[in-house]
Amino acid sequence: MTSLRVSNLVAGYGAVQVLHDVTIRVDDGETVVLLGTNGNGKSTLIKSIVGLVRSTAGSIVLEIDGAARDLRGMSPESIVSLGVAIVPEGRQLFPKLTVEENLLIGAYRPKARPDIDRNLAYCFETFPVLRERRRQLAGLMSGGEQQMLALARALMSSPKMLLIDEPSVGLAPIIVNRMIAKIRELKERYGLTVLMAEQNFTQAVKIADRGYIIVHGEIAHAGTAAELNDNDLIRRFYLGL
Amino acid sequence: MSPTAFLAAAAAVAVAVFVAATTVGNEYVYFAGYTVLQYIVLATAWNILGGYTGYVNFGSAGFFAIGAYTTVVIYKTLQLPLLVAIPLCGLTTAILGLGMGYLTLRLRGVFFAIATLAMAIVLHTLIVNWPFVGGARGVYIIRPRDVAFFDGYMQFLFAVMLALAVIAVWIARLVERSRLGRGLAAIRDDELAAECAGVPTLKLKLISTTLSGFLMGVAGAPFPYYVTYVDPNGAFNLAYAVNSIAMPLIGGMTSWAGPLIGAILLGTLQQVATVTISSALSLLIVGVLLVLFVTLAPNGLVGLFAALSQRRRHG
């Protein structure tokens, strides 16, 4: 069982408070999307969950392998070692290392080390372009290939939960389509629980079970994918119509 | 090549160098060769933190001097033989490196470099004000009259430094090709991304400062026996700090071969310049070469060779 419960979270940068009393949950095996336009706090929420932004109040409880713990105050590295993989915004690859080195660094977590060969083979099978480019520097690949590498690197840690921050940033629409399909494929293959922040409403809702709309750092609406799809609220809060 | 095979090959090269040096039949060869070898150890040590991890240490002279002064302390108290003193010197500077890491690793880039420079100055001041090790006046070390198996003490020191150089390069290569090395490379490339990928960045950086500190202390350990008179200005000489940065930079910072090539090239050039022109000129050479390499070959000689051979392969 893997689940994440964020309760009454308050976070921000210095004097600027970005998240006000945010409560969300991700249940076992679900794909949950955080929707919202720029500057509403999607990335801040993901960053507070993984320890890149310090939250000032509330709780972030991760239940994994039957143990529950509060992630607040933990470093990203120790959160990864619990079994949470992060695909950061803007991909955050190691541009001067090769594709293969990037992937191997993804398997730094002690628990992932015995599975390195299997995971690597699977990554190459799922993303054949990475096999072709394994000796190439990651920084020399196209944006779409880099995003695939970021996703593959996250999977190298044999995660139970995947946190993805804006997978569509800077990608052509057709590539976004392919990325979203890949995320679904990987989720099913690994039995992952996924939390994804995304601006691209139509693409994100395609694979989501549920979603939250975040407006000015507050959850403005929560609902299932079907509800989100034809809800008047979406037009008001999200599309601004 | 497996690590053991590499160690054997390096040892074979070292033996060949030693035999070649004995055939010259001049004590000065050992004297000059020692300096070059010392720089191999120092540059390799610097490169573990500076090249592999991406943290520029300006305080190499501090580590080197503390290694040398640990030998002085051992000489004045326990009077252990040099070969026993060397690992103890390394241990002292390893602890120093660990402490420096804990205090300064939250700083990045130029701020880290300034902190290391400041640390070297603090250590210099401490030594100047410690009469037991000679204070500002310095201290004399009397070499043992003779040493078993070797033809004179200078030849022995040369052999010791040769062995230390082999060990240092071997360790650097081992680190470079291990999971540790990959983690350090990730930190160098993008520390935040490394953290997000699950690399225990603080732990790896501390291992890096400790290991780098250890080898720097080892490089300085035989120094008092080499010069027989140690004073703070000699041991904390800026030349050590500058050279240990310049040599990996000129050779190439991402592989073990870089600091080795840089130290041999620059070290030899400095020795030649010292003899033929003047000792003051040797640092000038470093400066000029540094400027040339930073502008023309920012990845050092190793990077330059790699680029050239790639160009040839692609026609």
Concise overview:
The complex is a heterodimer of chains A (241) and B (315). Chain A is α/β, with parallel strands linked by helices and 241 residues long. Chain A is built from ten helices and ten strands.
Describe this structure in words.
The complex is a heterodimer of chains A (241) and B (315). With 241 residues, chain A is of the alpha/beta class. Chain A has one domain: P-loop containing nucleotide triphosphate hydrolases (Rossmann fold). Chain A has helices spanning 42-49, 76-82, 99-106, 116-126, 128-132, 143-155, 173-190, 201-207, 225-229, 232-238, and strands at 2-13, 16-26, 31-35, 55-64, 67-70, 84-87, 161-165, 193-198, 210-215, 218-224. In chain A, strand 9 and strand 10 (218-224) form a beta hairpin. In chain A, helix 3 (99-106) runs parallel beside helix 6 (143-155), helix 6 (143-155) runs parallel beside helix 7 and helix 7 (173-190) packs parallel to helix 8. Chain A is globular, with a radius of gyration of 17 Å. The termini of chain A are far apart. The model of chain A has no long low-confidence stretch (mean pLDDT 88). Chain B is mostly helical and 315 residues long. Chain B has one domain. Chain B has a two-stranded antiparallel ribbon. In chain B, helix 1 packs antiparallel against helix 6, helix 7 crosses helix 9 (201-220) and helix 12 packs parallel to helix 14. The longest helix of chain B has 27 residues, at 27-53. The radius of gyration of chain B is 19 Å and the shape is globular. The mean pLDDT of chain B is 90. Classes of the chains: A alpha/beta (241), B mainly alpha (315).
Care to count the β-strands of chain A? 10
Number of domains of chain A: 1
Spatial strand order of the main sheet of chain A: 6-7-8-3-9-10
What is the approximate shape of chain B? globular
Low-confidence stretches of chain A: none
CATH-defined superfamily of chain A: P-loop containing nucleotide triphosphate hydrolases
Name the largest protein-protein interface in this structure.
Answer: A-B, 26 and 18 residues
Quaternary state reads heterodimer
Give the C-alpha Rg of chain B.
Answer: 19 Å
- The residue-averaged pLDDT of chain B reads 90
CATH architectural designation of chain A: 3-Layer(aba) Sandwich
- Reading off the top of the CATH hierarchy, the class of chain A is best stated as Alpha Beta
Helix percent of chain B reads: over 70%
Q: Could you state the order of secondary-structure elements of chain A as H and E? A: EEEHEEHEHHHHEHEHEEHH
Which blocks of ≥5 consecutive residues of chain B have pLDDT under 50? none
Instruction: Give the CATH topology of chain A.
Output: Rossmann fold
Q: Report strand order across the widest sheet of chain B.
A: 1-2
**Which series of helices and strands of chain B comes N to C?**
HHHHHEHHHHHEHHHHH
Strand content of chain A: 25-35%
Indicate the structural class of chain A.
alpha/beta
Largest sheet of chain B: 2 strands, antiparallel
